[in-house]
């Protein structure tokens, strides 16, 4: 079981790990060992995740979220299978922690009177500068 927060924990049956051959460092050893990890988390079917967390997780996951609601995390950073497995699990925990944080509601603000006046003055100066770029009379 993976403990994410005080209220969220993921059961082992919700996670599936598959070990595949990795590219990158390792020399000839990389051709015969499966050190890369593909971690699958059935997020849509998970009874431990509240619906708002699932929605935020789907948005944060982006392309890692499949159409059937599975979150796929791949890791082939190191040459060691166990280390890659730990990194993938840490990434999953971090992603779910981010999704569990409720975003702050934005309070819309209005521009101050001074900022409006500065903007209009800058527009007027820019307009006058461009007005002087016209054709000069008498030459041609």
UniProtKB/TrEMBL annotation:
Gene3D superfamilies assigned to the protein according to its UniProt record, in alphabetical order: 3.30.160.20
Annotated GO biological process: rescue of stalled ribosome
Compositional bias (Basic and acidic residues): 125-140
Top-level taxonomic group: Bacteria
Region (Disordered): 99-140
InterPro entries: Pep_chain_release_fac_I, Pep_chain_release_fac_I_sf
Domain Prokaryotic-type class I peptide chain release factors: 21-37
Chain intervals with Basic residues compositional bias: 115-124
GO molecular function terms attached to this record: peptidyl-tRNA hydrolase activity; ribosome binding; translation release factor activity
Family designation: Belongs to the prokaryotic/mitochondrial release factor family.
NCBIfam families: PRK09256.1
Name of the protein in its database record: Ribosome-associated protein
Organism whose genome encodes this protein: Roseovarius nanhaiticus
């Amino acid at each position: 079981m993976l403990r994410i927060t005080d209220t969220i924990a993921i059961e082992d049956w919700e996670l599936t790990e598959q070990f595949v051959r990795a590219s990158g460092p390792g020399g000839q050893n990389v051709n015969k060992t499966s050190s890369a990890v593909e971690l699958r988390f059935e997020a849509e079917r998970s009874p431990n995740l509240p619906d708002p967390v699932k929605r935020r997780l789907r948005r944060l996951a982006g392309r890692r979220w499949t159409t059937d609601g599975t979150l796929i995390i791949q890791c082939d950073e190191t040459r060691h299978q166990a280390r890659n497995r730990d990194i993938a699990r840490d990434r999953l925990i971090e992603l779910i922690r981010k999704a569990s944080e409720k975003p702050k509601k934005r309070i819309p603000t209005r521009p101050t009177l001074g900022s409006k006046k500065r903007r209009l003055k800058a527009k007027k100066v820019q307009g006058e500068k461009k007005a002087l770029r016209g054709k000069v009379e008498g030459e041609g």
